[in-house]
Amino acid sequence: QLQENQDEIENMMNAIFKGVFVHRYRDAIAEIRAICIEEIGIWMKMYSDAFLNDSYLKYVGWTMHDKQGEVRLKCLTALQGLYYNKELNSKLELFTSRFKDRIVSMTLDKEYDVAVQAIKLLTLVLQSSEEVLTAEDCENVYHLVYSAHRPVAVAAGEFLYKKLFSRRDAEDDGMLKRRGRQSPNANLVKTLVFFFLESELHEHAAYLVDSMWDCATDLLKDWECMNSLLLEEPLNGEEPLTDRQESALIEIMLCTIRQAAECHPPVGRGTGKRVRSK
Questions:
Q1: Of the residues 102, 133, 164, which one is the last residue of a structural domain?
Q2: What is d(CA 40, CA 132) in angstroms, rounded to the nearest whole number?
Q3: Residue 258 dihedral angles phi and psi, to the nearest 5°
Q4: Which residues form the SCD domain (predicted)?
């Protein structure tokens, strides 16, 4: 009897879905389209056994191409609710492979709010499975740390930090109490210098520091470690920094000190809602 009741309820839900949702998710009114996507996100989260499959996920994927920013935004926030729950990740694999390129392209969306949420969604995808995003996908997000729009840059900074800076080797645990050149931060500071030089936007160190300030404050304020990398002799088997790398480290260090002292973003970076120009 329980099974019969459940089947009957699922048949009703299916009839409502086909009779209402399938027509209204393409409604002429953007607000109605947004409500549809928001609700299907809730259904997939609450009753994943019935709704979290590609028959329903495809509607969210298609709607990511909607002309209205508010609708695209609802798609991303609905997906974030699903990717946040690691128990649901296995059910999202096909969707991820099919629509990943669209999500990556949305990091350059003309609406800043949409771009920010696209980056946050990719950060969740990264945490669910590192193999999903290619090196090219990641680089498309990395360069946004130099964006003039701070929320976009901060979201990209968090993505960059999760990808390149947040993993610690087991041997690092024994180094936690060490300081200066022998601290776990030493390799992370070098990684930051290498990233800065490879991005070839040397005049924008202040933008890079500001982008990572919220998620990597402890690293960016480890001036003792930076000093020791500049002043002390390399450890056995350690590659010394080149003159170019030392200059970049000094520039980054100055930017971190200025950021700590002035407590505001660098000149030219704001949080305005206006659409970026070509």
A1: 133
A2: 24
A3: -65, -40
A4: 21-106
Among 45-49, 86-90, 126-130, 165-169, the least confident range: 165-169
Note the pTM of the prediction, 2 decimals: 0.89
Give the number of residues written for the chain.
Answer: 278
Residue 59 gets which letter from DSSP? Answer: H
**Cα angle for residues 112, 116, 122 (degrees, 5° grid):** 145
Domain identity same for 99 and 36: yes
Neighbouring CB atoms inside 10 A of 42's CB total: 12
Interatomic CA distance for residues 66 and 68, integer angstroms? 6
Helices 135-142 and 93-105, packing angle to 10 deg: 40
pLDDT score at 96:
94
Average pLDDT over every residue of 28-42: 97
Q: Cα-atom radius of gyration of the chain, to the nearest Å?
A: 23
Q: For 56-76, what is the mean pLDDT?
A: 97
Task: Note whether 199 and 139 are within 8 A (CB).
Answer: no
Listed residue (136, 57, 140) closest to 92, CA to CA: 57
d(Cα 97, Cα 103) in Å, to the nearest integer? 11
Look at the block and give the residue holding tokens 């128990």: 87
Give the pLDDT confidence of 127-177 residue by residue, as tens digits: 888 789 999 999 999 999 999 999 999 999 999 999 999 765 545 554 555
Domain assignment present for 162: no
Mean pLDDT of 46-51: 92
Cα separation, 170 vs 189, whole angstroms: 18
Q: Is residue 53 part of a domain?
A: yes
CA dihedral 113, 52, 12, 3 (to 10 degrees): -150
